[in-house]
Amino acid sequence: MRSKRVLVACHEELVPPPSIEGLSDEEISDWRTEFDVITTLEDLGHEVLTVGMGDDIELLRTRIEAFRPHIVFNMLVEFLGAASYDQHIPSWLELHQTPYTGCNPRGMTLARDKALSKKILAWHGIRVPAFCVFRRGRKDRRPDRVTFPLFVKSLNEEASLGISRASIVKSERELEKRVAFVHERVGTDAIAEEYIEGRELYVGVLGNERLRAFRPWELHIPNLPPDAPNIATRRLKWDIRHQRELGVANRLAEGLGVAKERELARIARDTYRALGLSGYARLDLRMRPDGRVYVLEANPNPDLTFGEDFAEGAEAAGIAYEELLARILGLGLAYRAEWKAEPAPILS
Q1: Is residue 190 located within the same domain as residue 220?
Q2: For residue 89, what pLDDT is reported?
Q3: Which of 38, 57, 79, 106 has the most CB atoms around it within 10 Å of its CB?
Q4: What is the pLDDT of residue 19?
Q5: d(C-alpha 116, C-alpha 120), whole Å
Q6: Treating both helix axes as pointing N-terminal to C-terminal, what angle do 258-274 and 114-123 enclose, rounded to 10 degrees?
Q7: Position 342 in a domain
């Protein structure tokens, strides 16, 4: 790919310094992804300008007008403090006829709502856990078909926000308390879904129309206490010291066999297409001991940190980190947004 002008849009508090020399893993953890992406794009020969975004969309407009980027590398995961507003950034970019990396607005909207996405997947014959939704300010009840144990989490937040061991509940009283926690502490509606005991697997997918599914990766917690559930809690996901204590590692899933890996890849691609995703995404799956696979959720624009599961999945597929970012740029430039289409004829 020839050199491009790339505007990297990230959150203002995550704009990285030019170098990480002398800094510990803990010191760089918050903005490590941004650093890896920016420095790699520069190493690839692109002209990179980083804009640290707050709540003023006007800043993005002025930077685009001044820099005239070929593409915006979108690393924004919320706006105005609302995670559900992340889809409005690519919507705004499309209205301004500016190419961007990652998922399109509709795909982000469908994937963000964990209940809506499960309804769509179930309609397509893709296995998902039974679930029910508890809206803030309403007295919703658990239907009989949704049986304990249940996994309670935010309906639309990501990054394991609000998830702990207490998220798995086994009684009406525990369910009531955890739903109240999500409503009050996370500040969103809650979803309670059937807890799928088994292996937690991640499958990365890359593409717009033609899709490439990576080999499955697995959450591995060798030092997990015997009574603790095998789930990615908020602490486990972001507390480096806790990760070291438990020996946490995401690694290539072992012992699945060729047929099961093909099944997982097919499920991941079918999910990607059913939700209308584009660019790149990570599919979170659970596999019961009997081999039945359930889709937990789809994550458009997942973590691109070098050495984490999405990049490692690409590496295992023969796609080095530099090539991965180059492909993500290429997919963004090639995405057929509506504004690129020929105008439809006016019918009288």
Answers
A1: no
A2: 96
A3: 38
A4: 93
A5: 6
A6: 110
A7: no
- Look at the chain and count its residues: 348
In a domain, 173, yes or no: yes
Nearest by Cα to 48 from 21, 20, 10 = 10
Same domain as 295, residue 213: yes
The C-alpha angle 295, 151, 142, rounded to 5 degrees, equals 105
Same domain (yes/no): 202, 229: yes
Q: In the block, which residue shows the tokens 């997982």?
A: 264
Among 246, 239, 245, CA closest to 220: 246
Per-residue pLDDT tens digits for 75-86: 999 998 888 899
Q: Is residue 36 one of the residues assigned to a domain?
A: yes
200, with CB counted inside 10 A (0-12, 13-18, 19+), is buried
Q: Minimal CA–CA distance to 76: which of 7, 122, 125?
A: 7
> Do 181 and 201 belong together in one domain?
no
CB 147 within 8 A of CB 130: yes
Integer Cα distance of 132 and 151 in angstroms: 11
Domain that holds residue 66: 5-101
Do the beta carbons of residue 192 and residue 142 sit within 8 Å? Answer: yes
Number of H helices, E strands in the chain: 12, 13
- Rounded to whole angstroms, the Cα distance separating 42 from 6 reads 9
pTM of the model: 0.93
Q: Rounded mean pLDDT of 89-98?
A: 96
Q: How far apart are CA 204 and CA 290, in angstroms?
A: 23
- Closest by CA to 33, choosing from 239, 253, 309, 282, is 309
229 contacts: CB under 8 Å, gap ≥ 6: 165, 168, 195
Confidence of residue 171 (pLDDT cuts 50, 70, 90): very high
